[in-house]
Structures are given as structure tokens and as C-alpha cells.
Design a protein that fits this description.
Elements (H helix, E strand, L loop, with lengths): L2 H12 L3 H11 L7 H9 L6 E6 L6 H14 L4 E7 L7 H10 L8 E7 L7 H14 L4 E5 L5 H8 L3 E6 L4 H6 L2 H5 L3 E4 L7 H16 L9 E4 L8 H18 L1 H31 L5 H29 L1
Parallel strand pairs: 1-4, 1-5, 2-3, 2-4, 5-6, 6-7
Magnesium ion binds next to helix 4.
């Protein structure tokens, strides 16, 4: 797609055309040297003001159900909300994906809400790049809250969580052993810990445990933010107000401490790095595939690529870092 066509899509997406936005996101799922400028354009047009909220936790904890509640609460406050649901399952078990869609379908006709599901299958490690690019797109298109759902396993998901402004770790009663089985890294990343399904009797024990985890996460963390623990029931709609309050409080903290700007800049630098890496890998793959080239030809390809990527990184880097 040429620049004019893409700007037309962006214009239509700004005007509320969901299909245009869907097409933009599809381009971002398949970034290469030929369309990297799309990311540059979107990122240099994004305000960096959107709050990127990462929601992680074991499958079944109620992340999707909670997100549905959060969407409603954010919409009531007048925010536009985007959701990137990263589904780790293979295409074989895409039932989970369908489940997410069904739970969130209440919002399907609301123009202030956009939900995108992406599967890890078929991305070959480029999923975090796609997700970070989508974040810039949603920000550029005026979404205030960008929620990313993951189950927190795998390099891609860890990378995306690292890039969030606010990290919510969701657990549920009876998941104690699973919680302990989770990597310590996952346990300590939360800005907010949610004990969902607190309509169940074992919830208070889990709440105690998570309070301990939150304290542990507090140790060695730089800055003054003390992780919060919130009890919710997504099914009954309990504790949602507390959760929204915690999310707001964390944003206030980020803005007040200067952390918000720092995180946005860090996220964009990471995006550039992942994009450059993707282009390097694509090119190497191409060179390997054409292994019957002479050494001289390979060297020429690499030199051309080097100049091209240098120019790209220079341009993108300057715009993004100046703009953030
Ligand atoms: N009892 C109870 N069940 C819940 C609650 N929240 C979600 N569930 C159920 O737990 C299951 C998994 O929920 P889902 O939102 O898909 O979890 P996810 O895998 O973390 O996204 C579904 O059957 C939900 O209806 C809750 O607060 N209480
Ligand atoms: Mg889910």
C-alpha cells in the first residue's frame, strides 16, 4: 500500500471506520522493511498520553471477564478503550479466542471500543513487535486506555508486559499452587494485584497470600509506588470500582513522578529495536535462501540492507524520541 492509501485509511479510522482500523492493524501484524514507515507515521502522531494497561495471569483467572467490566467502567467515564487480547494457544484450541470474543461482545457495537485478538501462532517471535505497533496506532487514533491481555508466558508476552504503563496481575482463589508455580518474575511485576472470583469462600486466604506477594514485589522496586491488592468478582460486578480507582491512582502516580513519559519513551525505543531486529532477520533469511549467490553478491545485498536500515532507524529514532 502506498502512503496516500495508508493516510486515507488513517483518516477513515479517525472518523470511526472500524474496517479501516482493522486493516491498519493487519498491516502492523506483518511489518517489514517495505512498510516500516507505517509505524513511524503512527508513532510520531501518537500523543503518548494513552494508558497502556497490561493484564496478565493464569488462564481461567477471569482476565477477559474483568476486561469486559473495565471497558464498561472506562466508557462510563468517557474514555475510548482498545483491547489487544494475546492468545497463546495454538489454532487447535482457538475456542479460548471465541470465548474472549463472546464475553466482550457486549461492546461490539460501541464505537468507543475496539477489540483485537492476536494469536501467538504464526508470528515467529514478532508478536511483541506487532503489539507495540498496535499500541502506537491506538494512541495515534485517540484511544485513552489500551488494555493488553496475556497469560504471561513466553518471551513475547513478557516483553509486552514490560512495555505497559500499568501491570495488573489477576489471580483467583484456589490457584495458590499455580501462583507459586508461576515464575517469580511474574509475581513481582504487578502494580496492582487482583484477587478475582472473590465470590468464592476461599478468596480471603488468596487475598492474604497476594498481599504478601505485593509486599515482596515492593522490595527492591525503585520509586514510591506500593503495589495495591484489590478483590473483585467479575461475574457479580463487585470490586470493579476499586479496581478502576487503583488504575487511576497508578496513572496519577506515573504522571506525577515523570514515570509516564519515561515509560512511553522506553516503549518506543523498544519498538524501534524490535523493528530493526525483524528487518535484520528478514534480510538474513532472504540471503540464506539465495545462498547460491556469490560472496560478492551477498556482500552487496548486506551493504544495501545496512544502508537502508540505518536510514530507517535514524529517521524513526529521531522522530520517535523527539516526539516523546
Ligand atoms: N465465580 C466466578 N467466576 C468467574 C469470575 N470471573 C470469571 N469467572 C469465570 O471464569 C471462567 C474464565 O473466565 P475468563 O474471563 O475467560 O478468564 P481468562 O482466561 O483469565 O480470560 C469463565 O467461566 C468465567 O465465567 C468471578 O468473578 N467469579
Ligand atoms: Mg481470556
Amino acid at each position: 500500500m502506498d502512503v496516500g492509501g495508508f493516510l486515507g485509511l488513517v483518516e477513515r479510522a479517525r472518523g470511526g471506520d472500524r474496517r479501516a482500523l482493522g486493516r491498519i492493524l493487519t498491516f502492523l501484524e506483518d511489518l517489514s522493511v517495505s512498510n516500516a514507515w507505517m509505524v513511524e507515521y503512527l508513532a510520531s502522531n501518537s500523543s503518548g498520553k494513552a494508558q497502556v494497561i497490561g493484564i496478565t495471569g493464569i488462564p481461567g483467572a477471569g482476565k477477559s471477564s474483568l476486561i469486559s467490566r473495565l471497558i464498561k467502567a472506562f466508557r462510563d467515564k468517557g474514555y475510548r478503550v482498545a483491547v489487544i487480547a494475546i492468545d497463546p494457544t495454538s489454532p487447535l484450541s482457538s475456542g479460548a479466542l471465541l470465548g474472549d470474543r463472546l464475553r466482550m461482545q457486549d461492546h461490539a457495537t460501541d464505537p468507543g471500543v475496539f477489540i483485537r485478538s492476536v494469536t501467538t501462532a504464526g508470528f515467529e517471535g514478532g508478536l511483541s513487535l506487532a503489539a507495540l505497533a498496535m499500541i502506537e496506532a491506538f494512541d495515534a487514533l485517540g484511544y485513552d486506555k489500551i488494555i493488553v491481555e496475556t497469560v504471561g508466558v513466553g518471551q513475547d508476552e513478557t516483553t509486552v508486559m514490560d512495555a505497559a504503563d500499568t501491570i495488573i496481575v489477576v489471580t483467583m482463589p484456589g490457584a495458590g499452587d499455580d501462583v507459586q508455580a508461576l515464575k517469580a518474575g511474574v509475581l513481582e511485576i504487578g502494580d496492582i494485584y487482583v484477587v478475582n472470583k472473590s465470590d468464592k469462600p476461599e478468596a480471603s486466604k488468596t487475598y492474604e497470600y497476594m498481599s504478601f506477594v505485593a509486599e515482596k514485589g515492593d522490595i527492591g522496586r525503585e520509586g514510591a509506588w506500593r503495589p495495591l491488592v484489590v478483590k473483585t468478582s467479575a461475574v457479580l460486578g463487585m470490586g470493579i470500582r476499586d479496581l478502576v480507582e487503583a488504575v487511576d491512582k497508578h496513572l496519577e502516580y506515573l504522571v506525577g513522578s515523570g514515570d509516564k513519559a519515561a515509560r512511553t519513551a522506553k516503549r518506543r525505543k523498544l519498538l524501534i529495536k524490535l523493528l530493526a531486529k525483524k528487518i535484520v532477520l528478514d534480510t538474513l533469511k532472504k540471503v540464506y535462501e539465495e545462498h547460491d549467490q556469490s560472496v560478492g553478491e551477498v556482500a552487496k545485498t548486506l551493504k544495501g540492507f545496512y544502508e537502508e536500515s540505518l536510514e530507517l532507524v535514524r529517521l524513526a529514532g529521531r522522530k520517535l524520541i523527539e516526539g516523546s
